[in-house]
Amino acid sequence: MFYFIVKRTIISFFIMLAATTLMYFLTISSGDPFEDLGEASGPEKAATIAARTAAMNLDVPPIPRYFLWLQDVGHCLVPGGVSCTLGLDRTGAAVLPQLENAVGSTLRLVVVATVLALVLGVVVGIVTAIRQYSTFDYSVTFISFLLFSLPLFWLSTLLKQYLAIDLNTWLANPQFSYLTIALIGVVAGVIWAVVVGGDRRRRLTVFAIAAVATALALYLLLVSRWFVTPGLGLVGMLVSAAGIAVLWTALLAGFRRRRVLHAALAAAGVGFVGYLVSIPLLADTNWLIVLALVVVLAVVSYIVAGVVGGPFRAQAAKIGAVIAVSVSLLIVVDRLLQAYPTLSAKAGGRPIPTTGSQSANLAGTFWEINLDYALHLILPTIALTLISFATYTRYTRASQLDVMNQDYIRTARAKGLSERTVLVKHAFRNAMIPITTLMAFDFAGVLGGAVITEQVFGWNGMGKMFVDGIQNVDPGPVMAFFLVVGTAAVLFNMLADIAYAFLDPRITLS
Amino acid sequence: MSNHQNPRDDSRPSVELSEMTLQSQDTDIATAAPTRAQTDRIRTTEAKSQGRLIRERFFRHKGALAGIALLALIFLLAFSSIGFAGIPGWWNKDYDVLAARFNEGRPTLTLWPFSLGEHPFGQDVLGRDYFALTMRGTQTSLIIAFIVGLVAMVIGTTVGALAGYFRGWTEAFLMRITDVVITIPTVVIAAAVAGIVAKAGIIPFAVFLGIVTWTGLARLVRGEFLSLREKEFVESAKSVGASSFRIIFRHILPNTVGVIIVSTTLAISGAILLETALSYLGLGVVSPDTSLGKAINDNRSALTVRPWLFLWPGAFIIGIALAVNFIGDGLRDAFDPKQTRVKQ
């Protein structure tokens, strides 16, 4: 393993070197760095030319110029001595500080979308594989092909125009007619019935329950003006925590072992107490305190659930920790939602922005600033998620089907394991192995795709740096962008290989 | 992967095998077994070539058939309506003729009763007929996509085949080049150079896009070659003195055709989206040529006032990409019969 990592790192280094060479010469030969000065005249023009020549080393021939750039990168790798700038852009400003600003906003964009697409895609992919050739399977197949074929910029423009503007208008006065509520209920009922499947009677039952429950919940939310002052509240938190506990237990352990269920509920109780305790703590905070809260909750739940779990200590403790992390997430979401009314007021009653990565000059608490980030993320995340989601669903489905045809699945069924155990423990784990590779590629791809995403949403990140750099024939920012994206691609490839060998013992790294 | 290396011995054991499996499955209804086995025997005596099996599997895939129909329709519409390369089409307006705007350029297409009207897709801000413009853009986008697919297929197959067959230094050299190109995201490398290449015309632009998108196929083909070169039929070809060239092209390549076709199909749908994305960034097709992406980019602020300028080219992009994706899915199912229904 160690030998493999060393070898791959050395090879990756040379690949990056070759790739930067290629990229550098493509960039500097892509146009004339003085093109925008064509119409200008007089002393200003001469001064600009002189300044640019100095900043971009244009008086040096291309090949030594590339080595000068390499030298600048080298300063960042070797500690001490000359300061690390990653070169200068054409105005003579250091590239590194610009990159540091840009990386943050681009990562927010990419990470959230990738994680969401992964979770949704895997869940839907598994369900379609289990219900192969059902109505649900066919609909999802069609939808994912449709999403697969959507140009990102086209989808984004539509989302901006229709979703954001209409949603903002609706949020100003959130009301539905009874007919709309009923229609939404019916749609939700149909979706649930198709997902759950089964015979006619079961589908009808599911449809009725889901439709009524959705319509009722929506009605209550509207009546209580939840969309104006959202949040979970004490009761909501208690119910949600218990729900999370039951869900995780159903998925990971089943209900046959009562003690495990009790342990899960105890963990949810710990989470709820944590919520109560954290109310004053989290009035205005920072990420460190939030992280500490998550860790403390996880550890306490791990212990409590382990004790309650009795004979099934190990399993109960793990589930307890998972539940605690989920409940902490819920606490964070609740906090963000509570910041909504003030932030909405600050945004002039139109809270969902269509462009940009954050509101300019926003002063507020930790939660308001992060909710502002989150609201800016809504549209790009929907667009990116929809497109990546299609890939994940297809691959997960194929992979799960492949695994379900294996002999060991038949063996597992033959020896009488419950369907849940077969699906979760024997099939799902093995089906996820190819998905790790896909995730590595997809993440690097989406990072590169930031070029388009950021252009569409007026996002001020690395993609914008790159596009501006290309248009100005300015290699500094272009190469800085490429350093990050290329390193991510190389690194994720290596991680995928390591993860592969770790998950599948038949594969050895050499 | 190695399923179709020797097409001739398909039919050999199938009769006995089907009988045996049928009987072993149906032990509890033993009386029914002989008759079913008999009918099965009559059916399986008919020999089916590998190509025919693939064709049958493909034509069972309804999505793929619908995709072919849709793609053919779009092809016909685009090339017959405004004509191509000097040959006139049935549509009487040109995409670059400015005219007075009629009813603010709204589309005159009505579905019931069906009539095209004067300007079925409306007119753009300059009064150009948008139907002709969209058709012209569709032609360009289709040509680009197919050239990209072709170029990527040729380069990817050659590189992958040479690397996988010769191993050693050839492989190390070619695969390191592939790694270098893979490291740079396609959009990025394309955006860096597309601006210049696009000015040279759509054909050089398309060839260039092909040159940057071949890497995935090269890796897949290499993988296939690595396993196939160790098979007995390659060894026997070597032993009778076949040249490397002959072994690669006559013996191994036909067995990798599935991977190549499927991957090329997906490269074509990817190329449509890549071309439109680059044109959207202003780095793609330039005037006086037009493409679907460029049409959207030119009218991107028009969504609120003239939504049809934005929606029509988008609909055609989706139509083409969707059709090609479905065809690719059908081809994958046809070439890779492993993914059949789960038996529970």
From TrEMBL, chain A:
Keywords: Cell membrane, Membrane, Transmembrane, Transmembrane helix, Transport. GO terms for biological process: transmembrane transport. It is found in: Cell membrane. GO terms for cellular component: plasma membrane. The chain crosses the membrane at residues 9-28, 107-129, 136-156, 176-197, 204-228, 234-253, 260-281, 287-309, 316-333, 373-392, 435-458, 478-503. Residues 103-496 form the ABC transmembrane type-1 domain. InterPro entries: MetI-like, MetI-like_sf. It comes from the Bacteria. It is a multi-pass membrane protein. It holds the Pfam family BPD_transp_1. Its main location: membrane. Belongs to the binding-protein-dependent transport system permease family. This is ABC transporter permease subunit.
